[in-house]
Amino acid sequence: MSSNADAGTDRLADALEEHASLEAELADPAVHADAARARRLGRRYAQLAPLVENARALEEARGDLATALELAVEDASFAAEATALEQRVAQLDDRLTELLLPKDPDDDKDVILEIKAGEGGAESALFAGDLLRMYLRYAERRGWSTDVLDAVGAELGGYKDVAVAVKSRTDEGIWSRLKFEAGVHRVQRVPVTESQGRIHTSAVGVLVLPEAEEVDVSVDPNDLRIDVFRSSGPGGQSVNTTDSAVRITHLPSGIVVSSQNEKSQLQNRESALRVLRSRLLAAAREEAAATASDHRRSQVRTVDRSERVRTYNFPENRISDHRVGFKAHNLDAVLDGELDPVLDALTEAHTAELLAAGS
Fold it and tell me: What is the CATH architecture assignment of 3-99?
């Protein structure tokens, strides 16, 4: 047996043992007194469920195949059943191999998604608004809840910068689905401000962060500088008369986050802390991955047109994802939240890479 097969067998045994342990824990009423812990355990249990179900189905199919092969020796009518069972065993075995691939530790987490206007001025800000609507519509289709944590509007509409928390109402992990959205998104269209009808190219940066829980990241209050200021809307006009907006600077890392979307200073402070914890977790994960020489796909560093991951071409109603060669001519539907086909293509390509690396 190869080392890869041995590793797969060990991972399966560990997963089955963990699943049984989680099942016992979740059956204990005392566990549910801590809602956060119960939710965390429930998510992990749900994450392991497909693997356990597949392993059990494979074991059953192998048993049925052995019986069919024995019977086929005496009765040729069982030969067709044995052939069908051989195909099912092969399919279940391939699926089990995929399910046993090393998992991203953040796959079961909710996310904080940030959209930042870049090159293109007003047109970039308008497209940032289009992308926000796309993600909100996609979340609605999936049954996820969304909460806009901070939004800095632009004079002609759209956003210079907007952050939204996306949460699952079930045990579905959102990071596993949306992590590939990180990068520079390029738009090609005739801006509303263009009088000559010329097509312009603009860029918007998207960052996707796994939302950190307090147990994931410890933030020392002494490391924070917290400033309050008056919230302002597009063009700098004040939108309220109190100093309710909050800016938090994490002194050791230099990370600065702000929130002005909530009505109270306390709510804005909590929203800003949520973003800060998630950025710190992402930075820690990135550092650990780099140390292990297994760095994740880099997210957007600078928002310019040359680092694009995807292009939205309005004249041709076309969306193109440059990482996997995906193309479709239903841009209007995609911007209305029909993201699954392109996300499926990205997920399948990532799985193929992991399989190739392990072969």
Answer: Up-down Bundle (1.20)
Higher pLDDT, 56 or 220: 56
What string of DSSP letters covers 203-214? EEEEEEEEPPPT
pLDDT of residue 235: 44
Give me the torsion for CA of 304, 305, 311, 317, rounded to 10°.
Answer: 110
Classify domain 111-353 at the CATH topology level: Alpha-Beta Plaits (3.30.70)
- 110-121 pLDDT, tens per residue? 899 999 998 778
Token pair for 358: 């392990």
Nearest CA-CA partner of 208 in 263, 141, 139:
139
- DSSP conformation letters of 86-115: HHHHHHHHHHHHHHTSPPPTTTTS-EEEEE
Better-scored residue on pLDDT, 231 or 227: 227
What does the pLDDT read at residue 301? 47
- Counting other chains too, the contacts that 286-290 makes at CB distance below 8 Å and 24 or more residues apart are none
The token duo for 1 is: 């047996």
